[in-house]
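Handout, section 3.2

Students often ask what a structure token actually looks like in practice. Rather than define it abstractly, here is a full record for TonB-dependent receptor. The first block is the sequence as you would receive it.
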Amino acid sequence: MITLKKNALYFIFILLTNIAWSQVSISGYVYNNHKTAIEGAHILIQPTNQTSLTNYDGTFNVQNISAGNYTLKISYLGYKTISKVIEVKNNDITLEFNLEPDLLNLQTIVVTGSFNPNKTIETSTSVSTLTQKDIQNTFPRGTANLLQNIAGTFTDASAGEVFTRVYTRGVSASAEDDMGWYYVSLQEDGLPVSLVQHSYYSPDLFHRTDITTQKVEALRGGNASVTAMNAPGGIYNFISKGVNETFGGEIIASTGIQGEDNNPIYRIDANLSGPLGNNWYFNLGGHYRHDDGARNTNFTFSKGGQAKLNLIKTNKNGYFKFYGKLLDDYTNRYTGVAATNWNDPKPAFGQSFSSTALMMPSFDVEIPDGRNPDKTNSFNPSKGVHAQDFALGFDFSQNIGNNWTVKNNIKFSTKKANWQTSISNAFVSLNDPTAYFVSGADYPIGQVVFNDAQSGTELARVDNSTILSGGSFQYLTNGSLPNDAIMGTSAWYKDISADELMNNFVLQKQLKNHTISTGLSLGFSKTDHFTQGSFAYVTYEPNPKMLQVTLQNPNQPIVALSDAKGASNYGGLFYVNTNANVNQIATFINDEWNINQNLRVDVGLRLENITHKGSKDQHAPLGLDGGVDGNENTAYDNSLKGPTGETDDFNFNYNYISYSAGLNYSLSTNAAIFGRFSRGNKAPELNYYFNNFDNVPINGKGEVQKITQIETGLKLSSKSVSFTSTLFWSELKNIGSSNFEFDSNTNTVFYTPIQFNTSRSLGFEWESIVTPIENIAFKFNGVLQNPKAEKWRIYNAAGTVDTNDDTVTNYSGNQLAFNPKLMFNLGSYYNNNTLSAFFNWQYMGKREGNAANAFQLDAYSTFNTGIGYKITKNLSANLVINNLFNSEGLANFFGANSFGASANGVTNDFVQANPDASFVVVPILPRSSLINLNYIF
């Protein structure tokens, strides 16, 4: 018995010793073609799923590896992924890996628009990736400005960082002006930035790109129909930095100048990351900026920033991540500039396409709140929009055994957006009765005096006694107003808040040849929205001044048409007070089937249910005796609008099924062809209720737009040439179209009844890169398309709320507005160990300016360039110049230069009848230069 025990103990000792001896480590060194170490490359050992990252010197070490056979995968953005089968015995292993460039990131794993992440070349979608280098080569003018580098993506960032437009493949009709992200999902780490959209409330308000972004993945159309929440047009996913095995950080200090007056911008980005112990890691970063803007204003255009935090716990089965964001930011947006000459637009009234902002100057005023006249809302147009976003989330992925994986991403956010700006800057002649009656006064006829609101100096005294009978005004003194006009503008105040909860749950099963994913997407938003529009008296000139305006008829009391600051018709132009609850619930299932080694098919189905429930105040002038202050001679507060006590309620439900099927056939490890058919849906956004049904019951729900897309393409990744090409066809049905107009008879703003239309687009997208010799590359991407307004009708209200003179015009068969037939980026790049440089040509083709095709926005080109130099191992300097030659392209068209006009009001007959009329266009932003110092530690 004793001998047996001794033998057993000896056997256990030998077994344990052998197990201990069999626990070895795998070390390695990862470098590029320049023999430069690659820091941050991701190491994955399968099937144990042990991971690591390379250090600053390109080395890594994975310990506690048992004897056996393993697959070692090494991946890094911008380089081809390496897979190597290794056999572990009883000795430590040391390896070396040379990562080859992945020119279009086709060998890089993408997660956007996919339930099962794959290499780009293996997917059946049109997906592109922007790296950190791409981000650094762009002047920081906002999200849309960055995305114009992505093939086939139309972006309009002419207004600045917000109020932008982004769309693809002609799926654009509802994505104009104040809802420019209507069809696409702007995401951070796989969940939407915002769940809802409505006028002046788009996701770009709450998104800023900075040093915390690792990469951007862009999916155009395709299976966004089954992987995104109510966004069938595409997904733009900004992926944050993650695990870093060693403690380190990066600081970027930037300064630059913009525009004609060399307006300054100052910015600092910082990021810190590293291990916390026991497989915990953190990443903390963000930015702050102070920006005087690209055009001339008398105030700071943008200031503020954000902070983001990730806490990540890894284990052998996956990860757990806690994340948060705090954004507190002020920014403004540019409006249009006046032009003449319909065939070759030139700036009018002394304005400039490069430098004129034509915005109200900074001033402070307290305007009574129509909901409670005893309270006021502070208004200063220099504040623009104050966006605040506080978000917290929890994301995890775990392999739970037997080839089952569970993933869940949940985020809560609370958002606020306070707009203090204007919605128009139109020319209003002093011969136009609107210039006086818009004040809200009963009969402002006689001697009208215009004083400089800041100095009190009289600028002009006008006799308008004959204008109602068709006569002209007369100056009574030597003084005059610039261009004999005032600016038709509104002091536009909006207060919006939203509390949102989003969750995406995925359960995945790996079978022999199938990867089946199913799950549930949830989104809940509680939104409150208040809008109040007042008038403001402003000179019509490149650098406008506020005007204090009075009616001073002999032997009569002086009537104040504006307050001392220039504000007029307090809350009398526009009133909207609404609230809404939005519930989105979707379930989905997707099967990725590897039919054989070369052929892969995926089929997805999504059932979505969206409920909109809320109420909207009916409103009317409050009819206060003598106005808010009880004084009839202060006419500016006599027409305040407020609630009548009645509400128009809505409670509508939208149900639909979306589906998508695609295939990918590998011609080789470096080439594949793919195809896809998708049928998606777009439920109405809240603007359907908020903008329409003014003081009338909301008696019907909106139409669900139907989107059908077919695409096929080729992907190739080789050592010196890589490209993707996609032929696509898309159709969009049930497009709701409405115009924003002004009734001069009632001095009110209104939206015309919705018309439902159809568009179709046939096109070809491409993305390519060639490296003919080492260190030099040429990139070329773009789209060639034919977007058509297949069925298109526009409602013409004839400038009045009265429907008796209304007409509907048919523009079916015209070119689809605001979609170029040709758009591309062509660039050259040089990069070695210490020096980098690029030169990029961006071409925007000719576009129709409205549904009537009565005005064309000419093609234009911009050129961007930059150079970078690595001063030391840790310090580098970079210079980026946007719009090098200060091109003066036109990005948008707002119609005739009159208060309340819209682009669709301009027809061919109107142009012929008014050849010398002025109109409003939005030029692209002028030249800007930025230099930064980048320190990595």
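Discussion prompt for tutorial groups: Helices lie at 2-22, 132-136, 143-147, 224-227, 434-437, 687-691, 908-913. How would you have guessed this from the sequence alone?
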